[in-house]
Structures are given as structure tokens and as C-alpha cells.
């Protein structure tokens, strides 16, 4: 079912979240972002930024057309490399393409001037005990600049070419003093972060305010909750269609067609039969039984896990901000399967408030899904036996029989007294 039906909307949701998050600033240290579904991962400070288009040389063929890539001037160098790699290797599985840490970002100016940009080098700004990660704005990279991704160079090469680096930066007054110092010979080599030795703390867009010595000015720049809640709602609205598409696919027999596993119909009929035998007419009891068997048992272990961790299914990379947003969607999925009333108060978490108006609709989808299954033709024991035999044949080489029997034995032993 995941392969035939639900895989596509799940992948589209992941892509939509990733794309929306990367439209705004993302802090490389804290993982907080301007656009987020999670309040815990929302940048509350005002961050000024501009969108740049960089023309990237194709690393596989320098004679091929350049690839235009949109980045932000506040992006760290590693963030910029990730965006360039996403564009240049679009459609290539994540495991089969180069890693950002294995590549250098080269800013090309004319035929000879080539500057290696790094998150940390001798131009990195240090104020008091805070060291700021270099960004594209730090190097004053301009819109339309020509860049290239090249394999990381050895230190000897870096030292031999450091003169070009220093000379190219000399026209920038803000960088002149550092670039012309004796340490300029190390300008291309990454600096060792002295956090443990000197207590220097790294920061990118916002300083980590867990430290007691943060400035009052930073505290005063915090937005009030109503403002960033509005931003959460705006992001949620942008992603709404993709969440709806996934949930509708999961909670609909129409999308499944013949892909609906016979086991679900067989199990639901069994539960209805047990309710009839015990003269249980309360629909909430039947709903709860089915929810405990499928959505809140199997789906929580499978679907919620897959929604939170699409990298288990797809060959992709999941960032911390994407993980936080997917966790909000997964929690909404669980809330949609519950029969309890969705009560909200002033202390309710923001993710509950975000989908407060949607959850009743999602719950109706779950109820409709149960009704549609009940209307389907019953599955005979013979059909069920044949189905299980066929599934065993299809997956004969996927599982170890003795290992499966061992797991079943431990399960039965644990619960045999209940």
C-alpha cells in the first residue's frame, strides 16, 4: 500500500516542508527556522535576509550549462552547499551524491580569482566569547555570482593558493585586516572550534539564550507570541494541501482500491461480530476497538513512524527542522484517530492549536473509513487463508522464519497470562 498509494503523498509532504523551510532563514546551530510548524523550532527574532541566485558550475561537466540555484545571503556556507547539491543532483538518491562536508564552495571571479568559502576561517568574526559562523553575506557574495563545488583540497594546496584568496578579498575593507594578517596562509583551512578550550560559543543567526550572559537587547527583540503563532498558521496553510492529501489517502478505501489489505476487512468484521455477540451497540466502543487495533496500534508504530522518519522509506536527508515539522503532522495523525474530545485551553501546545479546526474533519474521515470498510463484501476464511499463503510466497526471501518464530514466541510468553 505504501508503494502503490501512500508513498507519493508522503514524499510530496516531505518535499513541501523542506522547500518551505528553506525559503526563509534556518539557524545552522540551533536548527530554528523562520518558517516552521513547531514552536520549539521557530526563530522569534527578526532576521534580515535577501534571496540570491547563484550560477553553479556543473561538477560533472564544466562545459555543461550552469545551474541557477536560489539561496539566502544569510545561509551558512554549508547550507549554501546543501542547496547547490540539491539542485545539481536533483533526482539522484541522497546516498549516491557527494556530501557537503566533502566539497568546497568556490566563488569564481574572472578567470583567475577563485575564493574558497568556509563556515570558519581567519575572517570569522569573534566578539567577546561568541564566534559567528560565516555566511554568504559575510563574504559579500552578490546576486548572479558564479560558484562551483569542488572536492575538498589538501592543506598544501590551500597554502599555495592562499595569496589568491587574500588578494581577492583585499578590496573588501571589512575583511582586509584579517585577510592580510600572517594567519592568511591558513585562510582556506578550517579552523578548529575552540569551544572546549576557550569557552568560545558558536552562533549563526541567533545566539543561544540558554546562556545566562545574553544581552538584554536580544531579549527585547523577541516577538510576542501572537506574532509568531500567526507565522506558524501561515506555514501550516502553505502545507495544508499536502497534509490533507496524505491523510485522505490513508483514511480512504477509494484511494486504495484493490490495495486495501484483506486483513483489515477481516479483522474489522471480527470485531463487529464480537460486539454483536456481546450486544454492544455503542458505536464509540466499536470505533475504539478498531482504532486500538489499526490506527493507534499498527499505524502508530508504522504510519506515525514513517511520517516522522520518511528517510526509512526514501533515500533522502532529513534535517532537524524538517523532523520537527513532521513530528507535528504525526501528532495530528494520532489525534485524528482518537474518539476523545479535542479540548483546548490557554496552556494547550501550539501544535494542538494549529490543527484545532482540522482535526474534527480528519476524525470524520476516520469514521467514514470504518463505515466504508463495514460495507465491503465479507472475506471468507478460505479467501483469507489464500491471501496469507500468497503473502508468504511473495515475501519468502524477505524474512528469516526462525527469527520470526522466536519473536512470536517471546510475545506469546509475555502476554499468555492476560
What features would you describe in this structure?
With 418 residues, the chain is α/β, with parallel strands linked by helices. It is 49% helix and 9% strand. The longest helix has 26 residues, at 225-250. The two termini are 33 Å apart. Pfam families: Plexin_cytopl, Plexin_RBD. Residues 1-418 form the Plexin cytoplasmic RasGAP domain. InterPro entries: Plexin, Plexin_cytoplasmic_RasGAP_dom, Plexin_RBD, Rho_GTPase_activation_prot.
What is the structure about, briefly put?
The protein has 418 residues and is of the alpha/beta class.
List keywords for this structure.
16 helices; GTPase Activation - p120GAP, domain 1; alpha/beta; 9% strand; semaphorin receptor activity; 5-stranded mixed β-sheet; Ubiquitin-like (UB roll); 418 residues; elongated; 49% helix; 2 domains
Describe the SSE topology.
Layout: H1 2-22, E1 51-57, E2 67-72, H2 77-88, E3 103-109, E4 113-117, E5 126-127, E6 130-132, E7 146-151, H3 155-160, H4 162-169, H5 173-179, H6 195-198, E8 201-203, H7 216-220, H8 225-250, H9 253-256, H10 262-277, H11 283-308, H12 320-337, H13 350-354, H14 359-375, H15 381-394, H16 401-415
Helix pairs in contact: 1-8, 1-12, 4-5, 10-11, 11-12, 12-14
GO molecular function: semaphorin receptor activity
Domain Plexin cytoplasmic RasGAP: 1-418
Protein name: Plexin A3
